[in-house]
Fold this sequence. Notes:
The structure holds 2 protein chains of 2 kinds. By secondary structure, chain A is α/β, with parallel strands linked by helices. Chain A is built from 9 helices and 5 strands; from the N terminus they run βαβαβαβαααααβα.
Amino acid sequence: MKKLRRRIFATAGSNTISLGTGRKEFHPKKPRPGLEHYIKEAGQGALAQINDADNIDEGVIGNFMAARFNRQGNLAAMMPMVDAKLEYKPLIRVEGACGSGGLAISTGAKSILAEMADTVLAIGVEVQNTVKAVYGADILGGAGYYAGQRKNGHAYFFPGKFSDRAGAAYEKYGYDKVREAMARWYERAVLNARECPKAQEHHNSTEDLFAAGMTPPNPKTFCEHINFYDCSKVSDGASAVILASEEGLD
Amino acid sequence: MDLDARLEKVAVLGAAGKMGSGIALLLAAEMAKQKIKPENKDRTYALHAIDVSDEALCGLVSYLRPQITKIAEKSIVALREAYKGREDLVENSDIITAFVDEAMSVVRPSSKLESTAGSRLIFEAIIENKDIKIDVLKKLDAICPDAYYLTNTSSIPITVLDEGVGLGGRIIGYHFYNPPAVQKLLELISSKSTLPEVVELGTELAGRLRKKVFLANDIAGFIGNGHFMRDILHATGEVARLSGELGEAGAVYAMNRVSQDYLIRPMGIFQLIDYVGVDVCRFIMQVMTEHIEGETLEDDLLDRMAEAGVMGGQYANGSQKDGILKYEGGRPAGVYDLEKGGYRLFADGDWTAKSDEKLGAMPEGNAAWRALLMDPKKEQKLATYFGNVASSDAFGAGLARTYLVRAKEIADKLVSDGVANSPEDVNGVMTNGFYHLYGPINEYAGLVAAA
């Protein structure tokens, strides 16, 4: 199939903050909102932009490993917490590692293309600050080939993978050039975050971001070729969007 | 016998105490690292954790497990490598649990001194009392004749202990700072008779424990307390001078602010006294007075506080007890008023406002200690700020100037008296052990002295 047979619209987007280290609200030793809070906040933010939750035909929720991070399975059953009118409607949870939220959108699109639904509420949610990074690395490692690679993988499994790639880039283009490029990348990411009140790095007030990004990698405590600034932080948060056919949009 | 061999049988005396528990933690982790090496699989490791109270020893075990877990979490990269041959350990959590179990299996808590028999390294962290230390070490030496002794005394000359026990130089001052697991500083004190191999072993071990070593000579109080105790005397002297106008509690409040806010230190001098303990400070002063000729270190304010039962110190969980200051949520919230026989809270009445008014405006460029700690322009900002302290007419700035000059005089004298080998060593101890942003021997003191 070369093109979609129905037009699909995405509307009523809603994001929570991305909570984690760096946000002023974040304190590792104090209680924090859980899955329920984020699902509700993002979902209700989307539904508030349409006239009635009853107009939603289906719901899809994307998430990675809540069963380990939060000891919670069957997330689709939590969607009616957003609005009681979602109860008894087709609700499904999808998982595809970092692409879980994207899968929620594509699954919703499939329902619309299949003419099973005209409106789909798609939510992506993660609450991963429930464990320290050293244990989160094990859980996130489940996105790789766990049985075949975890044992011999790096303590920080995925940073280890990216570190290998950074090492290859150093070899090809020279350490200084690549490190400077990655430091600029970090600097740009934080500068962008400062423009977005909901971003995790919004409160980052480091004066010289580039200098921080140039911190030499320390293989004793982290990875051989990358530093902490090269890595995205662990976040808690959710996003929601309503997908609709033309009829659904009406 | 090399360090590896000595690390097979170790004892910590006073293991349930504030310092002893931290030392036991560091050693348990280090011994477990040795134990998991394939070449050491046939060796048996024992860390005899000795204390007088069984109850306190239970507390030690409860303290050690989560702390060793933290060490394992931070060492995960190295631990994965060390455990790579163990196919059953896949996740970081598997590896951390295995390491913690190894470390805990090394620890042998006991209230019986005899259980240390045959120990090759003995860490002493019992009460800061010369006679008790000598008595206990004598008993130990009868059952551990080849042991090297590493004493955590913060004030008693090593020679006094060495001669008192008859160790023939098998002892070295190994002064950890509180809390030992966190503080990087280690003051290493060798006496004239300390055996070179003991110094060598102590230095090697400090490296393994990732401590930053500063050498001090064998004069009571050494560098850290040599400076701190005299710093206290300066502050309490100023309190006596200001009490007439501000009242004693108001003067304590003012000097605590000057030493923290104006000098940009992590905590004020009275908070630091409470952190260490009023009685401990008095004890150290007594020891220094006893062993330093021509100088008497006595403090009337601390004596009166102790007499009133105001002791400070810390609870077993590390939180701060009320002392000269009262604490709420770990922060100073009041001052003990000896006249009233209770605490005067900062929030009650306008007594602190009176002291604040007397101190006057804070010089331009002042910043909180925490804000400057990691600031790459720290030196430049401090120079600008202390330039403003030098030129300020405010009373508080004057107190800060006098304090800064006195702190430098104390430090200079530590060097000229041979306690420290160099100004760098004094500055190193004060910046690494007391977390001062700048050492007492600095250009700012000259700047304000000129003013």
